[in-house]
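fyi for ur records
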Amino acid sequence: MNLFGKEILNIAITLECDCQCKHCYIESFEGISDKDLGLKTWKEIIDLFVNNGGREVCFHGGEPLLYENIGKIVYYAWQRGLETSIISNLINLDHSLIEVFKETQTYILTSLDGPRENYFQFRGLDKLDLIIENIDLLRKNGLSVHPIHIVHGKNYSDLSWITEFCNSREIKVATLSPLQPIGRAAQLKDYWLSPEELGEFIDIFTQLNKENKRVKFVTQSIFKPGDLESFTAQENYLKTYNDRYLNIFNDGSILPDFDLPDMRNFSLGNITEIPLKINQKKEKAYRETLDKAFIRGKSKLQKGIPINWIEEVQIAAKEQLSPDKQGKNLEKEE
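which gave:
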């Protein structure tokens, strides 16, 4: 695996967060240390990435604005010639960070799960007004803001709030992201999208993009049975999508994918280790997971069942090891 032929550096710079989101995938990070790398180490990692042809960096977490030196590391990445983006709840946005983001033209992605009752139910905080105020402040300073709206079994049929929000502010792109049943969301079965609901959402999503000329709505790789030919044609794209990314956690752990249900089973090594050694068996296990996910997804579509590619990968990852061995066997094979 060539770690440094990557285009995009994905950094979960801290696992610290000031929300208690019911759907957070943080529970999937078991085995990842909560000790964050320092500014000097992150600069060295960015230097290494840039020197090997990297082009972009995205900071997230946890909540990246809680990392003490987030402004400094974003600025340094920009100085090194990287395009910068950040995924944040924006609760801790302040004037100094706005100035950094403005100078570096950092692309801002933010969780926006209105209306208020939905936001409070999922985020555990009554901060929606503050988030909206900060979004407007960022836009006033000329920054692009990209909302990420979680779609679940209770709201998928009525997306009027997020649609009206984006249209009223002439936001160009917004993500409608189906709830992923990993981490804390594994306990929210009443909110998971059933196959039938996923199919309905795909139709709603398609119609939204036809009706809204101001906003482009994007989502995960989701398919209806009628998309079987398209799904088959995208096999290589789906299996190699994450090859563009170098995914690094707060403690330096390297992962092939940030959307897996148990990170311990797929940790490839640690970026701070010298010499860097990649766990080839875990890399192979991840590739086998993608193969199994594709076979399963194709079979479901042939049976008339809509699918979410990310969920198929997560299901295959869970089956990679039996429940009593998850997180253990692959560790022994190192």
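The domain at 3-332 is CATH 3.20.20.70 (TIM Barrel). thats all i got for now
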